[in-house]
Amino acid sequence: MQIKNREVVQQIEQPNKKINVDNSISSSDLEAHHDIFDKELQQEARAIALEKISPFPYTLFPEPIAKFIHATARALSCPPDFVGMGVLACASVAIGNGAILPLKTSWETGCTLYCGVVAEPGSAKTPAINKALKPLNDLQKRNFEEYQSKKMQYQLEREHYELEYEKWKQNIKSTKGTNAIEKPEEPKSPTPQQIITMDSTLEALYEILAANPKGIIKVHDELLGFVKGMNQYRSGSDRQFWLSAWSNESIQVNRKGKELLEILRPFISIIGGIQPEVIEEFIKEGREGNANDGFIDRFLFCYPDPVPSKWTNEDVSNEVVEEYCDVIFRLYYGLHVDKPTIINLDSKAKEVFITWYDVTEEETLATAFPETLKGIWRKLKGLHPRILLIVHLLKWSCNPGKVNIEVIDEETVIRTNYIMEYFKTHAKKLFQYSQANYKDINIIKLMDYVKRKGEKHERGISIRVNALNQGKVFGRKTNINLIEDTIHQIEGQGLGEVEHLSYKNNTFKQFVLYEKAF
């Protein structure tokens, strides 16, 4: 896929309307302006809900990566976003502390990522992520086999050491130290290099990180539990650790009865799922009591439109999987912690990056830009170089003899710009829940359910109204009155209608979601 150099930044149109407030404005006028602003936010939330979200831009990645994402998504009948997010997280850990991108003297970055995948249960998000993490599982298996071998060797060395130590003590006694033999050196016990962890406590994470300076990944089926469990037993310290780890800041751990543990550059990426019905709670928990620490803004989210989960004979060939794994293995073994590869932008690449960076900041200055997205947009400016580093090194790993590992070119930055625009649209969709009203949220949930569970109709997608009630679209609060009221809201926006049908002398209501709504 060729991308012209002129296509530097995909600009997003900004609302032109501004609200001018001067010192002489009355309180009633000020309240009116606030009402207008609130309505604009609600209208934007509704517009985002109806906006077609673009799929993961896997075609912007090197061919072995694109083929793997495409084939795996088709085989699992899931959006490519699920696999793509897993690939980004997997690549970030394979690179780990083996590469650094200095943007200027005061700013150098690695590629730690915190990733959230938003989808309903049963949508194949977990299998998709697991398929993408296969290379790391294979590496972990190799590391464990190597550890077992080293452990057996250690046992032999330990037995020999104990014999030699006893001889040394006897020699000390018999010679009274005059012709003492040299004291034997005690062998060091090997430690397993764990790459993937799931339910580890913070104390266990310290040990895992110390044993694996290259980097690790923490995988969660549900991120809400991870966020809610933070600081459950130790106020403030867990959250502070994750804030520091995102920036790879060194940490020192005082352990009772043990020597000080220092981790100079902790590298730990996160990936996990979020159910749409708990988005509001997730955002609230992520910002509870720490509204300005930016923890939740550090996450990259994907929130794709659902796809039908019907049986398919599509599958992923061994060749496609092996090519993907080889790319990740090359990153893991080709980049070293003891001597990280320093990677720089060439002059044109840096110019393109700066343009995207400044445009992203300008977007936050628009009058109607949602306040809740400002922190996210500013963190996206820091996430761009991380994704850029991953895209470049994937490109190098696919073509090690043709790509200069130490220099990022203009085309790679352009591709990354488009990938970051994708993440902007998904962040908007996710955070609409924090600015949409109760009815708008119900509309979003019902429309998502119809897209996922409905059947093809000449005007869009259809589903029986009682099936919406039985499917508990709104969770425990679901009832037929709420279903019908939400459908009425959708009808009022011209996005669907209810049909009255009969079958074998029985009548039933069917809701049709128009094609223009998805």
Overview of this protein structure:
By secondary structure, the protein is of the alpha/beta class. The protein folds into two domains: 53-140 and 193-434, Rossmann fold, CATH 3.40.50; 438-517, Winged helix-like DNA-binding domain superfamily/Winged helix DNA-binding domain (Arc Repressor Mutant, subunit A). It is 50% helix and 13% strand. It has helices at 27-50, 63-76, 80-95, 125-132, 134-175, 202-211, 223-228, 237-246, 279-287, 318-334, 347-364, 371-398, 410-431, 438-453, 465-470, 480-492; strands at residues 99-104, 107-109, 114-118, 196-197, 216-220, 251-253, 261-263, 268-274, 299-302, 341-342, 344-345, 407-408, 455-457, 460-464, 496-503, 506-514. The two termini are 27 Å apart.
CATH topology group of the largest domain: Rossmann fold
Q: Specify the CATH architecture of the largest domain.
A: 3-Layer(aba) Sandwich
CATH class membership of the largest domain: Alpha Beta
Distance between the termini: 27 Å
Q: What is the total tally of β strands?
A: 16
Q: Helicity range of the residues? A: 40-55%
Rough shape?
elongated
| Count of distinct structural domains | 2
Helix and strand composition category: alpha/beta
Sheet of most strands: 5 strands, parallel
Please report which band the strand proportion falls in: under 5%, 5-15%, 15-25%, 25-35%, 35-45% or over 45%. 5-15%
Physical arrangement of strands within the biggest beta sheet: 4-5-8-3-9
Radius of gyration: 27 Å
Average pLDDT score: 84
How large is the count of helical segments? 16
